[in-house]
Amino acid sequence: MRPADLLRLLLLSAIWGASFLFMRVVAPVIGSMPTAFFRAGIGALGLLAILLIMRVQWDFRGKLGHCLLLGVINAGLPSAMYSLAALVLPAGYSAILNATTPMMGVLIGALFFAEALTLGRAAGVAIGLFGVGVLTRTGPVQVDLELLLGAAACLVATACYGFAGFLARRWLGGGLDNRLTAFSSLCGASLFLLPLFIGSLAVQPPADWGGAVEWLSLAALGLGCTAFAYVLYFRLLSDIGPIKASTTTFLIPPFGVLWGALLLDEPLSWAYLYGGALIAIALWLVVRPSRTAVNVR
Predict the structure, then answer these.
(1) Averaged over 55-61, what is the pLDDT?
(2) Which residues make Cβ contacts (< 8 Å) with residue 128, sequence separation at least 6?
(3) 3-state DSSP call for residue 28?
(4) Could you report how far apart the first and last alpha carbons of the chain are, in Å?
(5) What does the pLDDT look like over 179-208, one tens digit per residue?
(6) 172, 161, 167, 169: which is closest to 64 by C-alpha?
(7) For residue 259, with 0-12 CB atoms within 10 Å meaning exposed, 13-18 middle and 19 or more buried, which class applies?
(8) Residue limits of the EamA domain (predicted)?
(9) Is the Cβ–Cβ distance between 176 and 61 less than 8 Å?
(10) Residue 176 has what pLDDT?
(11) Closest listed residue to residue 80, CA positions, set 27, 17, 13, 18
(12) Lowest pLDDT segment from 99-113, 124-138, 154-168
């Protein structure tokens, strides 16, 4: 992996690490579907402004339909699932479950896209998940139906990410501008979420639309954690492939710890060092070039 790709990987992890905190602030106040819809909509508008300012050529190379559908799989449905989970799960738990994305990518690649499941990748996924568990020791929780439903929603989202990475590589090859890909994907996500948003307002409108904190969090969620992040993500997909790009999820919890320590004065412990070391080993195992073709399928 080139240094530039590694830098993008770290930057994307830092940005997405903050997204769970923003969702945890917004979703309990205005609801899950409004949070998901405004996140995608604000992200799409932000990218539209960037495209117009930079005078990007609007050439989708005949792949606009694929981009819109990919947006549903990679942004719309996962955003709805994580917003639902944010109603009942602490941000740390969503980050832990989000870290199953590489595992989903490896399994989906092996089952549906003829990707070799090497021993190194399998070991890296296992070690990474263990490291995330050590790192994000958020304490015991009561196992009830709400927690199980929240966890299930997160796992649906990670499965979507697993499929989307491979579908993006299959559908969007051929030099399509990453900014156009990100914009059209967020348009697809917004169109998918619009009826869910309207339906949620009809069934149970928010009692409170929040204040400055909630809307600033939504702006950060839409512009930073979605618009800018998706440009980085699609660039990574084209440069390093879906499985390596999905290792961002191993790095999200450490950044969540960092933001908590810097911004919320949350205490640090030695568990963070142990978990971070395990995650670093896992990341190396997954992204290193394969010297052999050992297949464990």
Answers:
(1) 88
(2) 99, 102, 247, 250, 278, 279, 282, 283, 286
(3) helix
(4) 25
(5) 888 899 999 999 999 999 999 999 989 888
(6) 172
(7) middle
(8) 9-136, 149-287
(9) yes
(10) 79
(11) 27
(12) 124-138
Computed from CA positions of residues 102, 106, 107, 109, in that sequence, does the dihedral angle turn out positive or negative?
Answer: positive
Q: Alpha-carbon distance 124 to 247, whole Å?
A: 10
The position carrying tokens 């908590």 is 260
Other Cβ atoms closer than 10 A to 88: 20
Amino acid letter, 185: S
Whole-prediction pTM: 0.78
- Residue type at position 248: T
Query: Per-residue confidence at 132, pLDDT binned at 50, 70, 90?
Result: low
**C-alpha–C-alpha distance, residues 209 and 162, integer Å:** 33
Residue 204 Ramachandran class (φ > 0 left, ψ -120 to 50 alpha, else beta)? beta
Cα separation, 163 vs 160, in Å, equals 5
